[in-house]
Amino acid sequence: MNKDSTVSIDKVSYDAPMQFICSKVEIRYLPDDMDSAFILYDGGHYPILAILIGESSYIKDVTRYMEIMQHEILLEKKMKYTPIIGLEYSSVAHKIAKDIIIFYLKANRIDIHFFDELFLN
After folding, report:
1. How many C-beta neighbours within 10 Å does residue 75 have?
2. What is the DSSP letter of 118?
3. Could you please report the per-residue DSSP string of 45-104?
4. Which helix (H) or strand (E) holds 39?
5. Full-model pTM
6. Which of 11, 45, 50 is nearest to 28 (CA)?
7. How far apart, in whole angstroms, are the C-alpha atoms of residue 88 and residue 121?
8. To pair with 121 at 20 to 30 A between CA atoms, which of 4, 76, 86, 92?
9. In 3D, which of 97, 6, 98 has the Cα closest to residue 54?
10. Cα angle vertex 98, ends 96, 99, to 5°?
11. pLDDT tens, N- to C-terminus, the chain (121 residues)
């Protein structure tokens, strides 16, 4: 089990219960039915779930994009992401970060049109 509470099977990452971080565990699964995969530990069955968005470190990318967007807002200018992020630029992570900010603005009844020109395009 990895330090981020994930395990990789055939290049697919799975979330597992945090209690098993850095532990050696037995994982049982049928290759054609990964939805039923589980950890067998001390006689108990603990489900593992596929990470659908990608690697769990993907959330770090979303956080990086949100940080850059904060700078865009504070500086009131659009930033070029590729020189900052590098070749790992992900339009999906960027979109998720935008959606989180838009949700926050709407939930707090902040006029989102204030930011239209800056990063909603």
Report:
1. 10
2. I
3. EEE-EE-SSS-TTHHHHHHHHHHHHHHHHHHTS---HHHHH-TT--HHHHHHHHHHHHHH
4. strand 33-41
5. 0.45
6. 45
7. 21
8. 86
9. 6
10. 65
11. 787 778 888 878 888 888 888 888 899 999 888 888 999 999 999 888 887 655 555 667 777 778 887 777 777 777 777 767 666 677 777 788 888 878 887 888 877 776 666 555 5
In the prediction, which pLDDT does 58 show? 62
Cβ contacts of 85-88, under 8 Å, gap ≥ 24: 85/61, 88/61
Q: What is the pLDDT of residue 29?
A: 93
Please classify residue 45 by burial: count the beta carbons closer than 10 Å to its beta carbon, then call 0-12 exposed, 13-18 middle and 19+ buried.
exposed
Task: Find the Cα–Cα–Cα–Cα dihedral 44, 2, 51, 19, rounded to 10°.
Answer: 40
In the numeric block, which tokens belong to residue 98? 């935008």
Answer yes or no: are the C-beta atoms of 89 and 54 closer than 8 Å.
Answer: no
pLDDT at residue number 112: 72
Q: What is the reported pLDDT for 40?
A: 93
